[in-house]
Amino acid sequence: MKVFLLSLIAFLMGSIPVGLIVAKIRGVDLRKVGSGNIGATNVLRAIGKGPALITLAGDLLKGFIPVIIGGYILEDSLSTGMIGLSAILGHDFSIFLRFRGGKGVATSLGVLLAFSPVVAVLTIIIWIIIVFMTRYSSLGAIVSFLLLPLNIYVFDYSYNKFVVSIFITLLLLFKHRGNLERLYKGREPRIGERV
User: Fold this and answer.
1) What region does 61 belong to: left with phi over 0, alpha with psi -120 to 50, or beta?
2) 83: closest CA among 144, 2, 173?
3) Could you write out the DSSP letters of every residue in 109-126?
4) How far apart are the C-alpha atoms of 117 and 105, rounded to whole Å?
5) CA 151 to CA 105: how far, in whole Å?
6) Cβ atoms of 64 and 113 closer than 8 Å
7) Comparing C-alpha atoms, which of 46, 49, 90 is closest to residue 66?
8) How far is it, in rounded angstroms, from Cα 166 to Cα 152?
């Protein structure tokens, strides 16, 4: 029952569309500009760095806080991982947006920062390297999370953490299937391109 209630709270917290709220304050409907995504990258393209940083922080906290609380109450990595996955699902399929949402990168990183801090930092470093080399945020996310299960296996292995990492990766890849297609066709916008 504790796992269910905490997962439900995590889903609701994850569902809060931070980017949409931040953009709306600036008079922009984020769903109608750029990629239409509600995450920090589209906020950056649409209205600039400050709002994008606020969105990034908010989306990170949506994943971080439920996992920290869940880990304190339950002390079980599988249950804590389920709570983290619920927060990511909330972001990806927000109850406030008719079960539409973002791509889950920042929220997934927030989950990882609480769930496996060393691997989270490594994932961020890989993302930064790929983005620095290509200026594709989506490619950075795809590559860094494709490597997530391997990094968990090498640097912070437990069976439960490994299983959770696979589900996090699958969710992220599912949400980035459009980006994969655009990358293949050379139509994916780069970081710094404004709309």
Assistant:
1) alpha
2) 2
3) HHHHHHH-HHHHHHHHHH
4) 15
5) 17
6) yes
7) 90
8) 10
Question: With the C-alpha atoms ordered 48, 49, 50, 56, is the resulting torsion angle positive or negative?
Answer: positive
Question: Is the separation of the CB atoms in 108 and 118 below 8 Å?
Answer: no
From the list 141, 171, 74, the residue with the least C-alpha distance to 114 is 74
Closest C-alpha to 13, from 78, 75, 105, 96: 96
Q: End-to-end distance of the chain based on CA atoms, in angstroms?
A: 46
Tokens of 166: 């696979």
- Give the torsion sign (CA, 89, 90, 94, 95): positive
Give residue 159's identity as a one-letter amino acid code. Y
Distance of CA 180 to the CA centre of its chain: 16
The label of the residue with tokens 């929220």 reads 107
Question: Over the stretch 11-66, which tens digit does the pLDDT of each residue have?
Answer: 999 999 999 999 999 888 888 887 778 888 889 888 889 999 999 999 999 999 99
Half-sphere exposure of residue 28: CA atoms within 13 angstroms, side-chain side: 22
Summarised one tens digit per residue, pLDDT across range 73-118 is 987 889 999 999 999 999 999 999 989 999 999 999 999 999 999 9
